[in-house]
Specification:
Layout (H helix, E strand, L loop, with lengths): L14 H18 L7 H15 L7 E5 L6 E3 L4 E5 H6 L3 H16 L2 H7 L1 H13 L6 H10 L5 H17 L6 H13 L7 H4 L1 H5 L3 H11 L9 H8 L3 H10 L3 H14 L4 H14 L4 H15 L5 H12 L3 H14 L6 H11 L2
Parallel strand pairs: 1-3
Antiparallel strand pairs: 2-3
């Protein structure tokens, strides 16, 4: 399968030209969005990885990391690529990230968005998403709808998988990492109530069946070999890990978050903040036995040292729930000592007043 050369801007009078113009407009809005991560180093890193995969198409690609805790990436026909931070939190190495970006570049190279636009069966829905919905919804919902506009057919997804693996291999990455992305995501989505991934994520609803996809990717990648880039990826993401986990907790999908925490802790058992987040997910889920398990996690994090200040606030809540007033008071004090300018400092001070001296 030969790859196309660089695309030239289509005539505005054509359907493709109209699609590019629409994407240009949305890219302008995205560029101004407060959800775009402005960190220069991260953006350069992601752009460099995309270029390594895309080869001669590199000058036509712009990569925007978007701060939203869900797993997703998309690429528009005009070269605009979104990479959501929920994806960055979940992939384990550079090769896995390359698998996802390579897949999206595969859609771009095969011009699947244009095929979808020209498909009479999907034209109405596509136009509704792009022409109507983007004008009147919140920004995150808008980003989701924009990404959802590329809900390709399963045949398109299979073709992008094949091309993505080829790009990975040519860029020097181990293609066997691709299947692991989907296996990990499936394990996460299967946790908790309503555990059928196909019903919980548009990715699994529109992509080939997970088992089929994982098996196909493993067969295609059977001649493995190449780099995983695990250490480099961990180094690049480490400065963002805490705030990405804070975003993850705000999803309030605690069963899924716990699966993610277990995976992260297997790779980085020394991190006290990951123990805090696992404990916090348990505390917030508040199921039978969760408070005790949360307390164990918080105490292990304390033993590691370098615990985040928020751990002391969470400990205060656990002790308050157990009616251990002295321990709750001590934990809330430690929280305020460590984070006197915290947004909830007044609330915690109120608790301290209620608890007395």
């Amino acid at each position: 399968m030969s790859l196309p050369g660089r695309f030239s801007r289509p005539d505005l009078a054509t359907d493709e030209g109209g699609l590019w113009a629409l994407m240009d407009r949305e890219e302008t809005r995205l560029r101004r969005s407060p959800f775009v991560v402005r960190d220069h180093g991260l953006r350069e890193y992601l752009h460099g990885l995309a270029c390594r995969l895309a080869g001669e198409h590199c000058p036509d690609i712009r990569v925007y990391p978007v701060r939203t805790p869900w797993f997703n990436a998309s690429m528009a026909p005009n070269g605009m690529m979104q990479v959501w931070t929920g994806l960055l939190l979940r992939v384990e190495n550079e090769a896995q990230l390359a698998a996802v970006l390579g897949h999206e570049i595969g859609h771009y190279l095969r011009r699947h968005a244009l095929e979808r636009l020209r498909d009479a069966r999907s034209r109405s829905a596509f136009g509704q998403i792009l022409g109507v919905a983007l004008g009147g919804v919140g920004l995150i919902a808008q980003l989701a709808l924009l990404a959802g506009a590329y809900a390709y057919s399963r045949e398109h997804e299979r073709e992008a998988d094949v091309l993505g693996l080829r790009l990975m291999r040519e860029a020097g990455y181990d293609p066997r990492e691709a299947a692991k992305v989907w296996d990990n995501l499936r394990e996460e989505l299967a946790a908790g109530a309503g555990g059928d991934p196909a019903k919980k994520s548009v990715l699994f609803a529109t992509h080939p069946a997970t088992d089929e996809r994982s098996a196909s990717l493993k067969v295609l990648a059977s001649e493995g070999g190449g780099a995983t880039g695990e250490q480099e990826y961990a180094r690049r993401i480490a400065p963002f890990l805490y705030e990405l986990m804070e975003d993850e907790l705000r999803r309030a999908q605690y069963d899924e978050t716990l699966v993610l925490c277990e995976r992260l802790l297997r790779r980085q058992p020394e991190r006290a903040d990951l123990l805090y987040f696992r404990g916090e997910a348990r505390r917030l889920r508040n199921g039978p036995g969760d408070a005790e398990l949360a307390l164990e996690d918080f105490q292990q994090a304390l033993a590691r040292g370098s615990e985040p200040p928020a751990l002391h606030r969470s400990l205060g809540y656990v002790y308050l729930q157990r009616a251990d007033r002295p321990a709750a008071r001590n934990s809330f004090k430690r929280y305020l000592d460590a984070a006197p300018q915290a947004a909830d400092a007044a609330l915690i001070q109120h608790y301290l007043t209620e608890l007395g001296s």
